[in-house]
Amino acid sequence: MDTRKHVEVCFTPGEYKYFKDEYEIVVVIDVLRATSAICTAFDNGVNSIIPVASIEEAREYQKKGYLVGAERKGEIVEGFNFGNSPYSYMKKELKDKDIVLSTTNGTKALDIAKNAKNVIVGSLLNLEVLSKWLAKQNKNILCLCSGWQDKFNLEDTICAGGILEYLINTGKFTSDEDSSIAAKYLYLSAKDNPLGYLKSSSHRRRLKKLNLSEDLKYCLTPNSSKSIPVLKDGRLIKLQSIE
Ligand code: 3SL
User: Fold this and answer.
1) Per the omega criterion (within 30 degrees of 0), is the bond before 33 cis?
2) Is the beta carbon of 85 within 6 A of some atom in ligand 1?
3) Is residue 69 in some structural domain?
4) Ligand 1 atom with the shortest distance to the CA of 33
5) pLDDT digits (tens, 9 = 90+) for 84-123
């Protein structure tokens, strides 16, 4: 009997409904930039992050006195404390704080996945620690790419492919879907130089136009983070820190 667990890749939140019931762990990925910002926040001592899908919910939290990050189409939404740049989450003022975050696609994907048994945050920044941790879980795993407004994107797919490639190589996992095979091959093509590989990708161009080249470089440089954020009762907290 084949005792291997499944790992698959879902390209967009819109396709999640075709996958959702079979997986005990859903890894939500938004490399540019929501899940990279979330990993960075935990690396820098943020206590918890409440992800919210809408600006209205974000405003409600702001009224209650929370520090709130809000981004739409790459820009900080007027009236909020910060947006989605990982550099905003390195600030000392955020240490030990419970903060709120709403972004175009990343927090939407977290919202869609919130009823899964376990929801984990993945990015290129925590690719290595996360893949190692997932390999020990003996559970079926779905990598959910946030995409861009429900369309496929390269950066999330590459990250999902990296997780899948690691897990398959342990011999303890298998995959069936063509999306997973495609993600793996894209990862193998991109892994030596993700920033260069994504040069003409749509979101890299979008962020470059907004003068966010430093964010791009940071988010597309793998394995600087040791944090594995996990969703518990509507809040992201840090699962562990691996030195
Ligand atoms: O879509 C999102 O959630 C954001 O990460 C997009 S952006 O990188 O802030 O433009």
Assistant:
1) yes
2) no
3) no
4) 5
5) 999 999 999 999 999 999 999 999 999 999 999 999 999 9
Tens of pLDDT, residue by residue over 187-232, are 999 999 999 999 989 999 999 999 999 999 999 999 999 999 999 9
Domain that holds residue 221: 5-44+104-238
CA distance 211 to 89: 18
CA distance 83 to 89: 9
Spatial contact of 165 and 187, defined as CB atoms under 8 Å apart:
yes
How far does residue 14's CA lie from ligand 1's centre (Å)? 17
- Is 202 contained in some domain? yes
Token pair 């600006």 is at which residue? Answer: 55
Position 2 scores a pLDDT of: 92
Ligand 1 pocket: which of 32, 55, 208 to mutate (most atoms within 8 A of CB): 32
pLDDT band at 20 (very low <50, low <70, confident <90, very high): confident
Beta bridge partners of 148: 151
Residue 241 has pLDDT above 60, yes or no: no
Question: Does ligand 1 come within 6 angstroms of the Cβ of 106?
Answer: yes
- Please tell me what DSSP assigns to residue 187: H
Q: Is this structure's pTM higher than 0.70? A: yes
Any ligand 1 atom below 6 A from CB of 109 = no
Kindly give the distance from the C-alpha atom of residue 31 to the centroid of ligand 1, in angstroms, as a whole number.
Answer: 8
Domain total of the chain: 1
208 C-alpha to ligand 1 centroid (Å): 13
C-beta 34 within 6 A of ligand 1? yes
